[in-house]
Amino acid sequence: AVAPVYYSSSSSADSPPITDDGRIINLDHGDPTMYEKFWKQTGDRTTVVISGWQSISYFSDPSNVCWFLEGALEREIIRLHEIVGNAVTDDRYIIVGTGSTQLFQAALYALSLPEGAEPVSVVSALPYYSFYLNVIDYMKSGLYKWAGDAESFNKEEPYIELITSPNNPDGFMRQPKVNRSMGMLIHDFAYYWPQYAPITRAADHDLMLFTISKSSGHAGVRIGWALVKDKEVAKKMTKFIELSSIGVSKDSQLRAAKILQAISDSTELAGDSEISKNFFEFSYNIMADRWKQLREAVKQSELFSLPEFPSAYCKFSNRSFRTQPAFAWLRCRGGIEDCNDFLQNHKILTRGGRHFGVSPEYVRVSMLAGDDNFHLFLNRLSMLWP
Ligand code: PMP
Fold it and tell me: What are the residue boundaries of the Alliinase C-terminal domain, all occurrences included (predicted)?
């Protein structure tokens, strides 16, 4: 047996090590609670007060293609993308959704072929974000059907390819895989933010999805947005949201606007006494710290391996770094066939490779949990033996 190595967050170096009380550590979902500390110290600057007479109408701006989009949110989305430099917003329609999950469905609806045609094939390269498949299976739509791995799609027919970059679950930056002419692409940029990946260029695609869930960590506000080049596609996406929920909560949009504003302010005014911390510095440091500690624990256990990412220069933060994804794509070695089962026996809940279309040797582990759970996970991982 080896002496346990206790991991604790750098911000609490003086606090006593956490004792492992044998609890279940749930790292299955990517629930981003770790940014709570940042938001607590912003105090009233991120408090939103909405009076009884406000946000009453279904409409925000009837002249806008997305007639339920709040002007304040639209402004803050554009401002944040300009500051971060991760996406082009010029000549784009902005569509707001109840999370990017609703926008993903709206995009499938908008890109599908006219009624009467065969359902269009939807593909994504392995390992793919498991929820895409779950949603498509659940919907049983007559408009589209799941066709699996993009790499093996070889039909001469229209298709929709989902490109998640950085990818959930494995963290790699991605390009389209199907090289055919009849493709319609949906770029999911949930994680293309400077705490997770170097911002090397402003993404400039026809249909791009973003979400507040992973950028600020406010998954519970349920706000996502799409940047869409084509007016007809933008109109159809708006129609889908009208049919499914007659718009998107204004209260949530106003809260999201306030949060995005606070991020932009913290980035532009860092050093100001009022705005003590730059959000992306804070979140980058947490991710860097966690990845460093995870790699150490994995090395010590000799039972697992992790992907290696190339280093790239981030134009936003002016430094080079390796992607530090929101999920760790852990591979069990040493003859363990089902990594999920193995970890579950040690009361660590993850999501097994089969959900993402690949071998059960792999598991996806959330890197976004609260400090205690994350550090207990590291302690337990470093002490595991086959
Ligand atoms: N896309 C990807 C790749 C994700 O990982 C997630 C969240 N797990 C989403 C979209 C959905 O995010 P939202 O909370 O905005 O619906």
Answer: 25-383
